UniProtKB/TrEMBL annotation:
The keyword Coiled coil applies. Residues 23-50 form a coiled coil. The keyword Hydrolase does not apply. The lineage of its organism: Eukaryota, Metazoa, Chordata, Craniata, Vertebrata. It holds the Pfam family bMERB_dom. This is MICA1 monooxygenase.
Length: 154
């Protein structure tokens, strides 16, 4: 193996490990969000029950419960927004991995000398290139969605 091939292989492995670690981190955070979401649901149910059975409860107490309920709704919305961002990141990681795999296949065909390529090789090379362009376009759409979401949140 020439040095440049070893370097490319090492960098590809490093990038793959980086994607894997990022995917694990996202998965852990999604699980944390799910647990927090359930806790907020339980707190919200308790507050709703208190508000429904408010006979003889001072107005200050009712106001405090309503404020707590609104705060829980705000936290819930924040978690849903974060979860949405993480799901987009998961899709982006999948597309990165797919792009990397297609890129590797394409390199194999492109490294082959042109005179040794069969018509099947040329067709496969064109198909892989088309798939690669499709993946890049999908990643572009995800980035566009993220940008629009950030702008709408501002």
């Amino acid at each position: 193996y020439p040095t440049w091939k070893r370097t490319l292989t090492r960098r590809a492995r490093e990038a793959q490990m980086k994607r894997f670690c990022k995917a694990q981190t996202i998965q852990r955070r999604l699980e944390e969000i799910e647990v927090t979401f359930r806790e907020l649901e339980q707190q919200g149910i308790k507050l709703e029950k208190l508000l429904r059975n408010e006979d003889g409860t001072p107005t200050d107490q009712k106001t405090q419960w309503m404020n707590q309920l609104l705060y829980l709704v705000q936290q819930k919305n924040s978690l849903m927004s974060e979860e949405s961002d993480l799901m987009i990141s998961v899709q982006e990681l999948k597309l990165e991995e797919q792009q990397w795999q297609l890129d590797q296949k394409l390199r194999c065909y492109m490294n082959k000398e042109e005179s040794l390529k069969t018509p099947e090789d040329r067709a496969a090379e064109k198909e892989i290139l088309a798939q690669l362009l499709e993946v890049v376009n999908k990643r572009n759409v995800l980035i566009h969605i993220q940008d629009e979401k950030r702008l709408s949140e501002m």
